């Protein structure tokens, strides 16, 4: 599973729409010393481009979404873990998570917009499977 952070402070990348899009450069260096709290990401609208982007930022060559297995979720202390992000997606598989090509909404904002339809449970945190080699596909016609 993947834990995500939110940045507290005046320049948190938020706009009134609830989307988190950063127009800053892709380095992320300006976020290193800020007060950060870690959250789970909800898998609603999570896509393979975002999974690939997360894995690449962790130093892997590629990645994909991966279903959270009961065994993975059963060892977590759900009273101490909270969902903070939802609707996480990227337009391209090589986009930086902090770029304008990746998008996310704060979980509280999604709950306000969609109510109980947006509730995330222990089966819903995002998980990625990362690879040392990029995925290759062969199509025989």
Notes on the structure:
- 16% of the residues lie in helices and 23% in strands.
- The protein is globular, with a radius of gyration of 16 Å.
- The chain starts with a strand and ends in a 10-residue tail after the last strand.
- By secondary structure, the chain is an alpha+beta fold.
- Residues 7-34 have low confidence and may be disordered.
- It has helices spanning 48-57, 70-74, 107-114, and strands spanning 3-7, 36-41, 62-65, 83-90, 102-106, 128-131.
- The strands form two sheets. The protein has a four-stranded mixed sheet with strand order 1-2-4-5.
What is the average of the pLDDT values? 76
Shape: globular
- Total strands: 6
Q: Which series of helices and strands comes N to C?
A: EEHEHEEHE
Main beta sheet strand tally, sense and closure: 4 strands, mixed
Helix content: 10-25%
- Sheet-strand content, in percent, reads 15-25%
- How many individual helices? 3
Instruction: Provide the structure class.
Output: alpha+beta
Poorly predicted regions: 7-34
End-to-end Cα distance: 37 Å
